[in-house]
Amino acid sequence: MRISYFINTFNSINWGGQATSNAIKYMLGREYPDAEFVALDMPVLPFRKMKLFRQYYEHKLIHAIRHDEIGNIYKYLSKMNVSPTIFDGYTHICFNGEGAVHARSGHLSIFMGLLYIAKHQGKKVAAVNQTIDLDDNTELQTLLQKVYARLDFVSVREPLSLEYARKIGVENIVMLPDATYGLPRLRKEEIDKRVQRFHLPKAYICVTGSSILKRNTRALTQMRALLTYVQKYFKQPIVFLANAKTDIWLANRLQKEFGFEIIAPPVQYLDAMAIIARASFVIGGRQHPNIFAYTYKVPYLPYKGNTFKNDGVAALQEYPVMPLGWDSDEREFMSALQRVEHFTNFKNITIDHFAIFDEKTDKNMAKK
Question: How would DSSP label each residue in 323-366?
Fold first, then answer.
């Protein structure tokens, strides 16, 4: 058994990406200890400065998939630097859909093409760990339904995606929580050891950015307002967790004004997880820091991301508030904060089984 794994986010600067890939590798190793796990790097896509050419070939690829034109599928994948032999030597394919299956993804058609040819070549294929949010784009919905109907296993990571996927005709689908719920929990001694290296205050509030924010003046205004609310209400210092390019950009421009400490790459996800586990409170729109907070029983106030993924996180957790919009005013901030500041009813969300390649996969692999 030789498993090809993509999207490979082991080397991402994003802590969620790092945690996701490590969790999937860990869980597959637990289920299939004799299997070889190979993280597959995607080829560099062409036409980076000629988007019209890329969009043309993407459209052609989507058309070919929808009409089962296997020759053209290989042809247009090759135009994207994808070799027809990319899966040679592998018996199983694990697609990590994190951050890829949404309407604004620049790679969705290519990923669907890869899954299609994997099945055409007789591989066993699973698509996991995804939020499916295609913004009611009928072309993409039809594409996804067509490809996913061919796969051996399909799961989403939160209930809103499950509802949406079934609505657009993806029937062979189950819910399996975000892969990071399957990571082994850090022990108190390890948390303390990791946090001590950063010489943080004894008590602190963690703040994050969001995938919906851009590197522009509007995002600066929105983040400035949030930080103002935090400083007005909390007496503890702020630690800004910034591990995406936009978050780093925002943090660097606002640090002098608000005097917070920045935690950024090359800090890795285990250290970030430990810092969150020791925080008094977490606020922001980064999905995985909010999941880390919940896992370690730290209350958090969620903000929206670029898909409904954060809403799905809150729905899965049965959290008392749904994510706030980034234009929320102080009254909305305070109202939501008061509902979660002393929250203690954390559910034990785990992934006890990850048998995604079994002949008769248990449909209730997720335990809540």
Answer: PBPTT--HHHHHHHHHHHTT-------EE----TT-TT--TT-E
Rounded Cα–Cα distance for residues 356 and 365 (Å): 9
Six token digits for residue 277: 């586990």
Entry pTM: 0.94
Task: Give the residue from 16, 12, 21, 100 showing the smallest Cα distance to 289.
Answer: 16
**What are the phi and psi torsion angles at 216 (to 5°)?**
-155, 175
Span 65-119, pLDDT tens digits: 999 999 999 999 999 999 999 999 999 999 999 989 998 887 899 999 999 999 9
* C-alpha triplet 303, 292, 32: angle, nearest 5°: 130
* Alpha carbons 248 and 153: distance in angstroms, whole number: 37
The bridge status of strand 2-6 relative to strand 36-39 is: parallel
What are the Cα distances from residue 305, in Å, to 59, 131, 290, 346? Answer: 27, 12, 12, 22
Structure tokens at 34: 């004799």
Which single residue is written with the structure tokens 């499950």? 162
Nearest to 302 by CA among 288, 92, 63: 288
Q: Residue 65, Cα to own-chain centre: how many angstroms?
A: 26
The SS3 assignment for 241 reads strand
Q: What tokens does 42 get?
A: 């995607």
Amino acid at 339: R
Q: Rounded CA gap, 230 and 225, in Å?
A: 9
Find the DSSP H helices in the chain.
15-31, 51-66, 70-79, 108-120, 138-148, 159-167, 188-196, 217-233, 245-258, 269-277, 287-295, 309-317, 330-340
Give the Cα separation of 206 and 119 in Å (integer): 44
